[in-house]
Each structure stands twice: as C-alpha cells, then as structure tokens.
Amino acid sequence: MGNLLDLSTVAKRFRFVAFLEAVSWAFLIVGMVFKRLPEPVLWPVKVFGMFHGVVFIIFVLTAIMAARELAWNWKTTVLALVSSIPPFFTVLFEMWAVRAGHLAELSRGASAEGADPTPARS
C-alpha cells in the first residue's frame, strides 16, 4: 500500500482519506454495538458518529477534487461517491481505481510492480 502518510499528490490524499473513511466506519460500528448492550453506553456513538460524519464530508470533497484533477469520467466519479455509503467500500474502490489506472502515479507504480524487471531477450 506504500507510505499511507505521504500526502504529496491528490491520488495519495485520496488513498489516505479512503482508508480513514473505512476506519471511521469500523469505529462507528463498534459504537453501535456499545449502544445495543444490555447496559447501553451512548458516548461512543456520539463521538464516533461525529468523527465518521466529518471524515465522510472530507472523503466526498477529496473524491470531487480527485475527479477534477485526475480527469475521471462521470461513471468513475459517481462510483467513488457511492463507495462512501456502504461500510469499507472506499478501500475497495481505491484498490479498483489503482488497478484500473484512475489514480495517476499510484496506478503506474502498481503496474510497474507486476512487471518483470529484466527485459526479454531474443
């Protein structure tokens, strides 16, 4: 996955925020479990819900910025935005976008990693 904290390009920022969105989903699900206990604990839902909401908005803005800067077509843009709704789908979208060549240098790095470093000789 590379250095997750390297935010030098729009593709790297998108990757980081997509991962953060998935983490916020995990925290929110944990908070909802605490809410349903026989002795409910409500603060995790309030705290993690607010965290998830903020990260969701940041993801949507980052996806729109990535779509503009990386010249995504409308289908890829809609898919990125819809991926923020089901839990953990932002990470799945990011993985697909790298493989499909939609995340600039991250995609070039992924294709280069799979290539044979020694050229074929005839």
Description:
With 122 residues, this protein is mainly alpha-helical. Helix content is 70%, strand content 0%. It has 5 helices and no strands. The chain has helices spanning 10-35, 43-69, 74-82, 89-100, 104-114. The protein is elongated. Mean pLDDT is 85; it is low at 112-122.
Largest sheet: none
Compute the average pLDDT.
85
Which descriptor suits the 3D outline? Answer: elongated
Percent helix range: 55-70%
Intertermini distance: 35 Å
Figure out the total of helices: 5
Total strands: the figure is 0
Q: What structural class do you assign from the helix and strand content? A: mainly alpha
What low-confidence regions span 5 or more consecutive residues with pLDDT below 50? Answer: 112-122
Indicate the radius of gyration in whole angstroms: 18 Å
The helix/strand order is HHHHH
Strand content: under 5%
Report a brief summary of the structure:
With 122 residues, the chain is an all-alpha fold. The chain is built from five helices and no strands.
Topology:
Elements: H1 10-35, H2 43-69, H3 74-82, H4 89-100, H5 104-114
Helix pairs in contact: 1-2, 1-4, 2-3, 4-5
